[in-house]
Amino acid sequence: MKVITLSCSPSRKRNSDTMLDNFISGMREYSKDLEIEKIYLEDVPIKLYRFENRLGPESNESAFRNLTDKIMGADGLVIATPTYNFGVPAHLKNFIDRIRFFALDFDNQTILNQPKGMLDYLKTYYIVSGGTPSWAQKILFFAFPPFWLRSVFLYYGADCMGALYTGNVRAFENQRILNICHKRGKKFAKHLINKKQQALPERIFWRPPQVD
Ligand SMILES: Cc1cc2nc3c(=O)[nH]c(=O)nc-3n(C[C@H](O)[C@H](O)[C@H](O)COP(=O)(O)O)c2cc1C
């Protein structure tokens, strides 16, 4: 099985990037058979979405095409990102805008007249760092990236297996948080390999878990 992990902070070796490394080590500990690739999203140039590139990467976007091909052939997708102004960094937002060409089926509609999500083969997980304390994020969970990311990927038809938020701005050197990331990585690998389905209540009532 293949897992693509995207490190989306421009600050390498800081919070979300280090949390992702520990999540990956947990996945590797659970299974040697998982093929895991870590990609820094900023290394992949992606033009802004526009009507002309709605059907896929442009001819001079080979790195982006390579990435979308990999995700189309993957079983898992892990996104690690900081919180920037209640959202995600611009290049991650743009990446998510650009992948609708394979994430949505505009020829088929749901009962809400929305295009059908096509990522039903993909299990996703989100690792999010922020400067807002976890207790405040818990109350305002709908205004933070774990909630938004989950909403978009549910719309895209993917399974959302969980998310982890920390408001500790020195998470990269906090062994307790990094151990939790490691454990979550192991659990994600287990769910991936055992093809665990996302439970219906999780789809409806959901709050991202936090660590301080
Ligand atoms: C441009 C910018 C905007 C930010 N906006 C928020 C925000 O809206 N909410 C928040 O909790 N933290 C915000 N932060 C803080 C970062 O999310 C926080 O420092 C995080 O730990 C950085 O993660 P990283 O080390 O993985 O890049 C912001 C930081 C920057 C640089």
Would you kindly provide a written description of the structure presented here, covering whatever features stand out?
With 212 residues, the protein is of the alpha/beta class. It has one domain: 3-Layer(aba) Sandwich (Rossmann fold). The chain contains 8 helices and 8 strands. The protein has helices at 15-30, 62-72, 90-98, 100-103, 134-139, 145-155, 175-193, 200-204, and strands spanning 2-7, 35-40, 76-82, 104-109, 115-117, 123-129, 159-166, 210-211. The strands form 2 sheets. It has a 6-stranded parallel beta sheet, sandwiched between helices. The chain is globular and about 45 Å long. The two termini are 32 Å apart. Flavin mononucleotide binds next to α1. The site of flavin mononucleotide (FMN) has 16 residues, from α1.
